[in-house]
Amino acid sequence: MEVWRVLDTGLLTGAENITLDRVILDARAEGVIHNTFRFLRFNPPVALVGYHQSVEQEIRISYCLENNIDINRRITGGGAIYFSPEHLGWEVFATLDGVRFPYKVELLYRRLCNAAVKGLRKLGLKARFRPKNDIEIGHRKISGTGGTSTGGAFMFQGTLLVDLDVDKMLRALKVPVKKLSDKEVESLKERVTTIKWELGYTPSYEEIKKAILEGFSEEFQIKFVEGEITDFERTEFLSKLPYFSSNEWVYGIRPSGNQDNSLFTVRKTPGGLVKLALSVDVELNLITSAFITGDFFAYPPGIIYDLESSLKHIPLKLEEVSKALLNMRRREFQIPGVKINDFKLLFKEAIQRIKYTRYGLTLNEVNNLFFVNKDLDYFMVNGVDSLLLPYCSKLVGCDYRHREGCTLCGLCTVGDGYKLASKYNLKPFTIVNYEHLEEKLKELDETGSKGYIGCCCEPFYEKHQPDFEKFRTPGLLINIEQTTCYDLGLEKEAYKGRFESQTALNTSLLEKMLYLIFKHR
Q1: Could you identify which of 110, 200, 265, 384 might form a hypothetical disulfide with 451, taking C-beta atoms 3.0 to 4.6 angstroms apart as the criterion?
Q2: DSSP-based three-state secondary structure for 42
Q3: CATH number given to 368-521
Q4: Which Gene3D superfamilies match (predicted)?
């Protein structure tokens, strides 16, 4: 039976734990240590973004700073997570052999998660693996997992929820709220569970660790022996800790550009959200830099950086981007659930957007437009006949907040929307909840609508992009750039039409778009 080292590094800071991840993985790749299993915990609590994510987009930075919550970046991909001292992390550091540890990522995930499942069942938990990378009990997530690899070695890690302060997690992170649609659940609180919630008590950490190790021992025929950090690892740790503590690592050194010279697109894939920001030189028609983020996993993670690098200072043309993607296809890599064509479609939309400036739009305005089924050129030719407005932009307490109509009292921006609907002979609808949205989109399909214009926030569009596209009617949506239900963690209430805060429509852009559409017809 093969002998593995077991480490329990106890409570460490975010930077210390991430540094150890890098050090142990590199040491295994270089062959200076044997296969290793590590248990880890964090103190103070930490909000961790995935390797490819932007801290500003995924973490509520001010809340974390005010509440002594560390912020750091994992060396693995995936989405943002909140890790409190109560949580227990587990990690596997080993070499890929094609047998016990398959080269194919999906098979590797399944095998390793099945080992963890065996361990959890020893605690009396009815755990099971749910692809692509979750362990759940009764359809409620108790452990998320993910990994990365280098030089033939891999690290695979899991976060085990022993107990959980859901409210604090919701306030620290932005990502989980956006991911609710992916998990097909009503709320985050109903989607997760913990060992304490399931058992009614909290086993000791020693009991939990013993069960997990027994699960892996049975699955892989391993004998675990407690060990220590080697002198080599300790030296590397002290050398690399300053970097993994730095803003350069945590916040990233890759510029995402600014609203004046950047193009933004997003695409929802089975592997997660993929977001693209292109910095461009309009006069020279060049891509100056590309920034690809999201909650996907990439193996090796450097493939994304390599793609970004290959796109610098090339002509702003789809055929040039296609060449870079073709070279990427020749490399050995895996991005589960995300295809090369998904990247191509992202770039295609971004490049298409710059052409819309010929209508007199700024790039900032173009970035605040979302298209459903058709591009802007379609609307310039065919026009629109309906206006969809969200109830959350109506005055709180208004008699018409949850029903059709508007008194044009001037106390909210929806009144401005209704005035524009009258000016351009559009039929206005106040969307009061998600089911009502589907009902109206179905109605537009059945009546042969040529298209609608509407307003919604970017998180809502990201979450429901496939839902909009399943209806035939083309749509043009304008972003609401304000604090929304997603920022406040209240999207469940909004889904049901119970969000009790007021947003404001971007009426200037709405008016401009209607003017342009009807001017060009």
Answers
A1: 384
A2: strand
A3: 3.40.50
A4: Bira Bifunctional Protein, Domain 2, CO dehydrogenase flavoprotein, C-terminal domain
Tell me which residue of 256, 234, 325, 321 sits closest to 55, measured CA to CA.
Answer: 256
**Topology at the third CATH level for domain 256-359:** Enolase-like; domain 1 (3.30.390)
Tokens 């002198």 -> residue: 231
Are 20 and 93 in contact, with CB atoms under 8 Å apart?
no
C-alpha neighbours within 13 Å on the C-beta side of residue 130: 14
- Eight-class DSSP state of 299: B
| CATH homologous superfamily of 2-247 | Bira Bifunctional Protein; Domain 2 (3.30.930.10)
Q: pLDDT by residue (tens digit) across 222-249?
A: 999 999 999 999 999 999 999 999 999 9
CA distance 193 to 50: 22
Q: Which DSSP symbol is given to 359?
A: G
Residue carrying structure tokens 């709405």? 510
Would you give the end-to-end CA distance of the chain in angstroms?
76
User: 194 by DSSP, 3-state: which?
Assistant: coil
This prediction has a pTM of 0.64
Structure tokens at 134: 């979750």
| Entry field: residues in the chain | 521
- The residue extents of the domains of the chain are 2-247, 256-359, 368-521
